[in-house]
Amino acid sequence: METYTVNQLVKDLRFEGFLLVRSSDQRTGSNGSRYLDMNLADRTGEINCKMWDGNVAPPPAGSVVKVRGLVQEYNGRIQLRVERLRAATPEDPVDLSQLVPCAPEKPEDMYQEIVDTVARFQREDLRKLVMEMLRMAGERLMYFPAAQRLHHAERSGLLHHTTGMLRTAEHIIAAYPFLNGDLLRAGVILHDLCKIEEMKSDGMGNVSDYTRDGLLIGHLVRGVAHLSLAAQQVGVEGEIVLLLEHMILSHHGEAEYGSPRMPMFPEAEALHWIDLLDARMNEMQSIMQRVPQGAFSEKIWSLERRLYHPRYEE
After folding, report:
1. Quick one: DSSP state of residue 79?
2. How far are the Cα atoms of 77, 203, 241 from residue 245, in angstroms, in the given order?
3. How far is CA 251 from CA 71, 222, 261, 271, in A?
4. Cα–Cα distances in angstroms (integers) from residue 288 to residues 36, 150, 308, in the given order
5. Which helix (H) or strand (E) holds 28?
6. What is the CATH code of the structural domain delimited by 100-290?
7. pTM of structure
8. DSSP secondary-structure letter at 278?
9. Please, what CATH class does the domain formed by 6-97 belong to?
10. Is residue 278 within 8 Å of residue 165, measured between CB atoms?
11. Is 133 helix (H, G, I), strand (E, B) or coil?
12. 87 pLDDT band (50/70/90 cuts)?
């Protein structure tokens, strides 16, 4: 049977393949019979699915299942009537990059790039601080996205965002040699680490919601609190801690975007613009991938404008 992606599914097409479970629930129909209601997805889209078998347990959200069924139409929208369903096994040829947006590099490689950067720091106290913050972040850093939507909303997106910023920072440091390079690099690594506390993400990098901590505190303030704790745990004190705290707190640039302080020294200012540039370029790249050359996108609410995809070959 030919393999199709979700965005290729049309009425009367038969489908068999692996999909990601976004949500699933057992429900009762008007005639009293129970059925399985699911939203299944791959990286191209999502489709509602019904399985008219009340004995099948709902697969957990974030898991991968293999399904077979017929594409139907209900109330003007396509729907998959599932005939067979099972959980994916380690032996199955599942390519996660086809099911969820993933960073273009392996998380292990990106994490090692960060660790290697820290190892080159000249200040031992700065190395201790950053490595303790990475330790506190733990294994979740390997799969966590950088956002629920918008930029780097992908599996391992936080690592992707951080390594992209580190690479840009190297050019900024070379262009402005008066900057304290290690302070800027440390700020890049630490600025978004507490997004791990701000969002609820499964191992696939899908964010279902913001956490209570994220809604009440947010990653900027929580980042400052975690840095203060890390400094105590590794015995580091002095202005270096205060500078990093300010960089975390001010990296959104102004109060309108969540920063209670604007950047007040050069490395903090550079961090703000590197963060904004990397986020914008990632978001624009995603938009260019779905907009044909010579065409305009819909209005992008986060950018407050439409984008044009140039005909570069001309």
Report:
1. E
2. 50, 29, 6
3. 47, 14, 9, 6
4. 37, 14, 8
5. strand 14-28
6. 1.10.3210
7. 0.80
8. H
9. mainly beta
10. yes
11. helix
12. very high
Tokens 């960060």: give the residue: 114
Note the residue count of the chain.
Answer: 314
C-alpha span between 246 and 253 (Å, rounded): 11
Domain ranges in the chain?
6-97, 100-290
Per-residue tokens: 171: 């050019």
pLDDT given for residue 157 in this prediction: 94
Q: Are strands 45-51 and 77-87 parallel, antiparallel or unpaired?
A: parallel
Report pLDDT for 1: 60
Token reading at 159: 């690592």
The Cα 50–Cα 76 span in angstroms is 16
* Cα dihedral: 110, 114, 115, 120 (round 10): 140
- Write down the number of H helices and E strands in the chain: 10, 7
Torsion angles phi and psi, residue 38, rounded to 5: -140, 150
Interval 195-226: pLDDT, tens? 999 999 988 788 888 999 999 999 999 999 99
Please give the pLDDT value at position 314.
66
The region, left, alpha or beta by phi > 0 then psi within -120 to 50, assigned to residue 103 is: beta
For residue 50, give Cα distances in angstroms to 37, 234, 256, 304. Answer: 5, 54, 44, 38
Kindly list the distances between the CA atom of residue 3 and the CA atoms of 44, 68, 100, 215, 254, in Å, as whole numbers in the listed order: 13, 11, 17, 41, 48
pLDDT for residue 125: 95
CA–CA gap between residue 182 and residue 273 (Å, rounded): 17
Residue range 103-127: mean pLDDT, rounded: 96
What's the token pair of residue 25? 């629930």
Which residues neighbour 142 within 8 Å (Cβ) at sequence distance 6 or greater?
A: 107, 108, 111, 156, 159
- Provide, rounded to the nearest whole percent, the portion of the chain with pLDDT above 70: 99
| CA dist., res. 308 & res. 293, Å (int) | 8
pLDDT beyond 80 at 307: yes
Closest CA to 40 of 55, 63, 60, 19: 19
Per the CB < 8 A criterion, the answer to whether 302 and 286 are in contact is no
